Amino acid sequence: MPSTPATDDRGVPLRLDKRLRGLEREHGLGAALEALRRHQVEVGFIRDDLSEVVRHTFRAPDGSGARFSTQFNPARARRFAGAGIQQPPEGVVPVHDRCFLCAENIAWQQQGREIGYPIDGASMPYTAWMNPFPLAVGHAILATDEHQPQHWQEGGIDLATLVEDLLEFAHRLPGWILFYNGVGAGASIEAHLHYHALPRTPGLGPMPIERAADRHREGAVARGLYPMDFAHWRGTHAEVLARARPWLAEWQAHAGAAADATANLMATCAEDVERIDLYFVPRHRRRSRGEGLGGVIGAFETMGEIICSTPEERILIETGQVDYRTIHDLLAHVAVALDD
Ligand SMILES: [Zn+2]
């Protein structure tokens, strides 16, 4: 094993942490995470520079300007095996079934190369880790320090707190996309609570669900604007929180009380004005996959970009067997109707 520098009790090298803290104070959380990304490339933890990614865009035939896209990202196929070593070294006892998001395991799995950045200010301590299988350059995972379930129905975090934390992160990362995958709705690690934080890829413009939300006028529920019903709130951080909280409590007491109820949640913060957008997409745990293309539909896919990673999918896309309708129907297949 390489020699490890002095660390704090979360395994964070003290000097890196101090430098990142300074960056966050001066330029915001995004600057600290960008410095963490550069460090993780330098030490060889991030090896995927996304140069293999190929994106295709499919426009609606009706000329409305609606569109979906596919992201062919072959490195993603390797993610279920994890990025690190499988067997702990002599004398090291793995915790929580070798969970990939527990700092104690990360230290031996990644042989000290993966460094986290502690994030304070949410309902509990979180640590940002770089995703070794990114969907965009700088893709970070924000995981709780404590090992606790991803699903709000399983006795860990409650839905209201989950949304508060998501909005807190979005607010501190203007220009980024924050999202949460419910269990059965794209979460690949179900035993440890985490969110995704994704810097926008330059030049891509709004995600398809964001274009649909621009046409959403009244109430929380956006219906008929997108292949999936979704709830959407726009306003200041405080306004979105105040409006979303009672609506979500109501949902949870009715449709959301079903054992199979799950969801995707996304939040974004504008860079120029104080404007937060929060999206809630209800899902069903036994309908996690679309048909014909891609694997599990997670939050990022519900926003309108389907991740593909197998050669077969690449052939489907490049031989014209995928079009706007294919992706529309894929999303419609996993959609759950929302009442007002
Ligand atoms: Zn864990």
Overall description:
The structure is a single chain. By secondary structure, the chain is of the alpha+beta class. It has a single domain, classed as HIT family, subunit A. The chain has nine helices and twelve strands. The protein has a nine-stranded antiparallel β-sheet with strand order 3-4-5-7-6-10-11-9-8. A three-stranded mixed β-sheet has the order 1-2-12. The longest helix has 17 residues. The radius of gyration is 20 Å and the shape is globular. Zinc ion binds next to loops.
What is this structure, in a nutshell?
The chain has 9 helices and 12 strands. With 340 residues, the chain is of the alpha+beta class. It has a single domain, classed as ATP adenylyltransferase (HIT family, subunit A, 2-Layer Sandwich), CATH 3.30.428.70.
- Which outline best applies? globular
CATH architecture descriptor name: 2-Layer Sandwich
The percent range for helix content is 25-40%
In the CATH hierarchy, what is the superfamily? ATP adenylyltransferase
- Measured on Cα atoms, how large is the radius of gyration? 20 Å
What is the number of helices? 9
Unreliable stretches, pLDDT < 50, 5 or more residues?
none
Q: So what's the CATH class?
A: Alpha Beta
Largest sheet: 9 strands, antiparallel
Question: What keyword list fits this structure?
Answer:
single chain; nine-stranded antiparallel beta sheet; alpha+beta; 28% helix; three-stranded mixed beta sheet; 340 residues; HIT family, subunit A
Topology:
Layout: H1 14-27, H2 29-42, E1 54-59, E2 67-72, H3 103-109, E3 117-119, E4 126-130, E5 140-144, H4 159-172, E6 176-181, E7 194-199, H5 208-214, E8 221-222, E9 230-235, H6 237-253, E10 261-269, E11 276-284, H7 299-302, E12 305-308, H8 311-318, H9 324-334
Parallel strand pairs: 2-12
Antiparallel strand pairs: 1-2, 3-4, 4-5, 5-7, 6-7, 6-10, 8-9, 9-11, 10-11
The structure holds zinc ion (ZN).
The site of zinc ion (ZN) has 6 residues, from loops.
